[in-house]
Amino acid sequence: MHDVSSQPVAHQHIAPTGFLRKYVFSLDHKVIGKQYYGLALVAVFVGMVLSWLLRLHLAYPNWHIPLLSKFSSTGAPGGVMTPEYYLSLLTMHGTLMVFFVLTNAPFAAFGNYFLPIQIGAEDMAFPRFNMMSFWTTFVAFLVMMASFFVADGPPISGWTAYAPLSAVGGDAGPGLALGQNLWAISIALFCVGSLLGALNFIATTLDLRTKGMSLARMPYSTWAWFVTSVIALLAFAVLLPACILLILDRVAGTSFFIPGGLILSDKLQPHSGGSPLLWQHLFWFFGHPEVYIAILPSIGIIATILPVFTRKPLLGPRALIGSMIAIGFLSYMVWGHHMFVSGMNPFSANIFSVPTLVITIPATVMTLLLTASIYGGKMRFDTPALFCLGFISVFISGGISGFYLAQPSLDTYLHATYFVVAHFHFVMAVASLFGVFAGTYFWFPKMFGRMMNETLGKLHFWLTFVGVYCVFMPMHYLGLVGNVRRYSAFVDDYLAPLIPVHKFITIAALLTGAAQLIFFWNLIWSRFRGPVASENPWEATSLEWSTTSPPPFDNFGGKHPVVNNGPNEYGIEGTNGSDYVMQTAAPRSA
Amino acid sequence: MGIDIQEAMHTAGTIGPPGLSDGSRLYTQTHPRPERSETGAWIGIFAIVMSFAAFTSAMIVRQGATPDWVHFELPRLLYVNTLILLTSSLTLGLASKRLRSVAGFSATAPTEKAYSEGMIWLAITLGLGGFFVIGQILAWRVLAAQSFFLSTNPSSSFFYVFTAMHGAHLLGGIAGLAYMIRKLAKTNGTARTTGLPALSVYWHFMDGLWIYLLVLLMVRT
Amino acid sequence: MGKVFAVVLTLITLVSVAFFAMHTWWLPPDISTTGKAVDRQLDETLIGTGVLFLAGQLMLGFFAWGASDKDRAEKIKPFPGGATPLVTAAIILVGIEIFTLTFVGSKAWGAIYLTQPDPSSIKIDVQAEQFAFYFRYQGPDGKFGGVHPEKIDDGSGNYFGLDPANDLAARDDIVTASLVVPVNKPVALTLHSKDVGHSFYVRELRVQQDFVPGLDIPLHFTATQIGKYEIVCTQLCGLGHYNMKAYLEVMSEEDYQQWLKTQGGQ
Fold first, then answer.
1. Domain spans of chain A, in order of start
2. CA atoms within a 13 Å half-sphere pointing along the CA-CB vector of A221
3. How many CB atoms lie within 10 A of CB C163?
4. Does A74 touch chain C if contact means CB atoms closer than 8 Å?
5. More confident residue, B23 or A209
6. Residue B104 pLDDT > 60, yes or no?
7. Is C83 in the A-facing interface, judged by CB distances under 8 Å?
8. Could you tell me which of B112, B115, B88 has the C-alpha nearest to residue B103?
């Protein structure tokens, strides 16, 4: 019988031998994907511990935090954090989470592992560049972590590193000499790694799709990785020059961002003529697309996973993909909404506000399509499905707060308050992370050949879902009162009545953080003891489920899959009484 | 003696089955898909354009921010370097034409004559690229002798930044070209893919980028 | 499990909305001439987004409830109308909301940031530095003295770097650590920074403006209620950022004149 699902390859793809080639300096996109995931796990653990330290200090400023003085005797003498150390930890929390977790996990990790498989390729277009991109990112991580161990500690300028605070050097405060240099170098390296990765994703998607895999038949996760790569390519290409100019201002005496006449530590700084707003423009021109880099892959992952568990097709796939592309495009037009009160011409606030509000349209469309896709489904409430539902809820919450901040007239009050902190944590820390969780529970069987524990997974979901609302919803109320962010202590008169709210948030944050340990444990335990997984335990349609768990070295065992259907064929009569048709199965008769 | 045409066609890989029974060839046989590396080169070019756009806007904003911009005359050497770089694009084109069949544009393998001529033009391109980079460094020396250093003035800062960034990217191209020459030499011109179209695109882009930067510096500095 | 999700989600949604609706934690009363428009904008946004929030979350819960697989034999149901009406409705409704908010909001914004200060405004120079605000009044001669960064000496109280010895206009400049203004009189500030970025934020005035080193940034307001209000820094400026504040004291006209006298003015 004619096999419609695959055809033989033209040439051999030879598996590597030796420990280093197989597991360390591997060219295999699957190994590289796992390496990125592992890096993200380490980074998120560090970032989470940092958040506990920050929250503890805010709620209980005089507490002696055990072990902290051992880690930094100048930063936390006797276990009580100094104001500058608070800011150092805050900077590292933001930097690690935004760059090394949210750009790595949903995008680099899952994208590297599954993009080639989902389009039926044997590997990425440029495996050597791929390996270089991971190791560059890894070195960037080491450089970033090194700032913890230098004399003055990490920089205190926030993940946004505004000039001139970040540009003049040590006179502006602790951590701003060597710590800031390390930060800038690390981020520059991270840019290079990301650019190489994005280049690979784009070339692979364009050139290596297997027979029958038209762009229209690509799974939504692949589409998301593709659009995200284009955004990333152009965004990191702007951050890298910005970092270079910042480094030059810091070490070479140039004045790109530093104006004249500044007096720091009683010293007149030897720079002149630079523009601090230039840094902000360059940074946010990158920074805004960056947050869409953080969320789009998760949206794609959720859109891919949801139909598997509702057992019906996703509603409006073309509108979904169109929305992703629209968001990618619009994301480059809105950067000024981070700068409404920055001192740039106030008229431009009106100009930036319009596309910022317009971008809510594709976001709303996507949310509605995901929600409406549940209607009438016969839902299987396994853990990945729960995280899909949770994603939609938290994405609504986070998106709605954006409506306020997009309007300059409201931003004049809400800017730099906890309202902003609530907004970006909901959309990035929670929604994007829920996409990673859903992806992990969903794809773990494929990656490791074993199922994760369902009971632990469900427990993880419920504790996290309720927990994140307890942590981040109250921050909106704090913002409405005008509680300013990035404060290491709350000494202003009007902040005193808010301390109980902060205590509530801290306790919720610690408990929610503890719940994540369930996830870590589940990962480790299931890796070695989880029940063995079949080829397609979730009964899903995309190409990764037509190969073994885990896939062989060349992904499809010496064959190229041939694709005859799109990824959305759920809820229809398939073979053997099943309710779905795989992408490689025989084409459905019309 | 000579390159076995059948073998060359086979290893070229883009030829595939011998064509249709009436002797005509499929579209995909006469128009092979671009090499992956060429796609990669185009994508890389997009990113590089974006980077230089960022540097350009930084320069425009900086120049407008404070009236401390000092104009200076560009070293004459820059124009000589420009000619060198333009010539290198020409020699690369000449090489490309001779080695074209290797890159899959035609059905026949290069003749031995075309192959050796092509390799010579490639070597000349490499040399010219090297001369350009050296010339840029010498141009820096000229400026430094006039006391225009990196931090002297924003105009000199941007001069050094732009030329250094361009030079660094060109060095990458030179490394790629050297790698390609080695690969071609090792396989005697019959490698299935060479990266030649990718390199050509990249090199000509570096040319075009330099012209843009030169004009930008001439107008603004 | 879908039913549990729907119940939990509904609870979370209702509790969240309740705290918003009850104004449990809320903005302080507005004391400016331009703040009312901001507050109105906020109320409108709250209502609009409140509806969206409730609708979105409750719809999600409702669908999750309905999709619970209590009856496995039941076939799946397509969404009524399919994607097109849904997408079209979303675009139109959100589009209308955006248009309205932008149109009305731009007026509120413009009133604060795009208008010129009243010519009779009291001019005050504001300097932000690590980690304090200082304010300078023109004094009886109605002129500001020149500032010289190299002459700045916090130790002797010369925060602005004035040169009274050689600069006549600087001799009567009043330098204070509090922003004192008369009620119902327009005030025109000029913001500049000595070192890094800072920001000027008075919640009751509903204004916020960053200080950008190298720039002199105008900000004007009219305070409508007597009282003492906090000015806090909202742009990360270093280790003392949390502690960087000053007071805005709004006084009656008589008290203000009295205060000026005590500062050396007439």
1. 30-258, 300-535
2. 32
3. 16
4. no
5. A209
6. no
7. yes
8. B115
Identify the residue whose tokens are 């009133």: C111
The tokens of B125 are what?
A: 């391109």
Taking Cα atoms as reference points, which of A19, A192, A200 lies closest to residue A112? A200
With bands split at pLDDT 50, 70 and 90, how would you rate the model's confidence at B103?
A: very low
Describe chain B by its helix, strand, coil percentages, rounded to 5.
75, 0, 25
- Rounded CA separation A27/A135 (Å): 11
Low-confidence ranges of chain A (pLDDT < 50): 1, 590
Residue A531 preceded by cis peptide, ω within 30: no
| Contact: B39, A207; criterion CB under 8 Å | yes
Q: Is the pLDDT at C50 greater than 50, yes or no?
A: yes
Interface of C with A in 209-228 (CB under 8 A): 209-215, 217
At A67, the amino acid letter reads: L
Cβ contact, residue pair B47, A233, below 8 Å: yes
Q: Kindly indicate the confidence band of residue B23, based on its pLDDT and cuts at 50, 70 and 90.
A: low
Residues 6+ apart with CB under 8 A from A492: A484, C230, C232, C245
Domain boundaries, chain C: 2-69+78-113, 122-262
pLDDT at C213 over 70: yes
Interchain pair C195, A389: CB under 8 A: no
Q: Which CATH architecture has domain A30-258?
A: Up-down Bundle (1.20)
Q: Return d(Cα A470, Cα A461) in angstroms, integer.
A: 14
CATH of the domain at B25: 1.20.120.80
Give strand pairing partners of A7: A560
Q: Which two tokens stand for residue C3?
A: 């039913």
pLDDT in tens, C158-189: 999 999 899 888 888 999 999 999 999 999 99
Superfamily for domain range A300-535: Cytochrome c oxidase-like, subunit I domain (1.20.210.10)
If one counts the domains in chain B, the total is: 1
Enter the DSSP assignment of C146.
P
Share the mean pLDDT of chain A: 93
Q: Which of B40, B51, B154 sits opposite A255 (nearest CB)?
A: B154
- Chain A residues in contact with B68 by the CB 8 A cut-off are 272-273
Domain span including residue B56: 5-220
Angle at B199 between CA B195 and CA B200, to 5 degrees: 120
CA distance C110 to A472: 32
Residues of chain B contacting A241 with CB distance shorter than 8 Å: 51, 54-55, 58, 165
Interface subset of A 522-551, CB within 8 angstroms of C: none
Q: Are strands C122-129 and A6-8 parallel, antiparallel or unpaired?
A: unpaired
> Which segment of A250-259, B1-10, B174-183 scores lowest on mean pLDDT?
B1-10
Nearest CA in chain B to A244: B161
In CATH, what number does C122-262 get?
2.60.40.420
pLDDT exceeds cutoff 80 at C75? no
Q: Is the sign of the CA dihedral B119, B122, B124, B126 positive or negative?
A: negative
Q: Is there a contact between A66 and A399 (Cβ–Cβ < 8 Å)?
A: no
pLDDT score recorded for residue B99: 81
CA geometry: angle A13, A19, A21, nearest 5 deg: 45
pTM higher than 0.90 for the full model? Answer: yes
Confidence of residue C76 (pLDDT cuts 50, 70, 90): confident
DSSP A195-253: HHHHHHHHHHHHH---TT--GGGS-HHHHHHHHHHHHHHHHHHHHHHHHHHHHHHHHS-
Q: Which two tokens stand for residue B194?
A: 């060479």
| Closest among A458, A459, A378, A394 to A426, alpha carbons compared | A394
Measure the CA–CA gap between A553 and A31, rounded to whole angstroms.
10
Report the 10 Å Cβ neighbour count for A527. Answer: 14
